[in-house]
Design goal:
This protein has helices at 14-23, 43-50, 67-81, 97-100, 123-129, 165-188, and strands at 3-9, 30-37, 55-57, 85-88, 107-111, 134-141, 151-158, 195-196. By secondary structure, the protein is α/β, with parallel strands linked by helices. It has an 8-stranded mixed sheet with strand order 3-2-1-4-5-6-7-8, with helices on both faces. The chain is globular, with a radius of gyration of 16 Å. Bound molecules: 5-O-phosphono-beta-D-ribofuranosylamine. 5-O-phosphono-beta-D-ribofuranosylamine binds next to helix 1 and helix 6.
């Protein structure tokens, strides 16, 4: 039996697409069962549907900041497909401990920095402002603390003269698309040895 994977997105879902593509290849221990976006406008929903995966949206805005109510709606969608693993992929909503705790150890996220550096937003600008020589992305297990869980993989790039937040984001995204599928492939097979790219 393959592990069942649900993926949360907020936008174009480029990481989600790479995860679906890799799960479609031979030898993968997991299969996608749901792509969920917190907005019906998320471009990734159409991509997931085109790839044959159930794609739904649960808009966070009607809940007006009532995070537990929004998260109950998320969990209701998950209960219909009973996933084993939850992947956050460009998901831009903070999840409370109440949602995260039951998923701890089975929930992954990709963050565009070399954690523990630059938790939160604007990671590329912060790395540039700090004068860092390298930057990158991290896949980690999700815990209630934001961008803080055990690291499952990292990919590093050199920061080059003239880099801007946008040029850095573009090069980091290329690495995300390599790292996240590699981590999920081995995680689904029960291997949590950190990957370094
Ligand atoms: C990207 O900036 C990536 O660094 C972060 O989420 C953003 C959108 O990713 N993980 P995606 O294209 O929606 O996967």
């Amino acid at each position: 039996m393959k592990k069942r994977v649900a993926i949360f997105i907020s936008g174009g879902g480029s990481n989600m697409v790479r995860l679906l593509e890799d799960m479609a290849l031979p030898g993968h221990a997991a299969e996608p069962v749901l792509v969920l976006a917190n907005s019906a406008d998320a471009g990734g929903l159409a991509k997931a549907a085109e790839m044959g995966v159930k794609a739904v949206s649960v808009d966070h805005r009607p809940y007006k900041g009532d995070r537990p109510a929004f998260e109950a709606a998320l969990q209701a969608e998950l209960d219909q497909v009973h996933p084993d693993i939850l992947c956050l992929a460009g998901f831009m909503r903070v999840l409370t401990e109440g949602f995260v705790a039951p998923w701890e150890g089975r929930m992954l996220n990709i963050h565009p920095s070399l954690l523990p550096k630059y938790k939160g937003l604007h990671t590329h600008a912060r790395a540039l402002e700090a004068g860092d020589k390298e930057h990158g992305c991290t896949v980690h297990l999700v815990t209630p603390a934001l961008d803080d869980g055990p690291i499952l993989g990292q990919a590093r790039i050199a920061i080059e003269d003239g880099d801007t937040p946008d040029s850095l984001a573009a090069r980091v995204l290329v690495q995300e698309h390599k790292l996240y599928p590699a981590v999920l492939r081995q995680f689904a097979a029960g291997n949590t040895t950190p990957i370094t790219l």
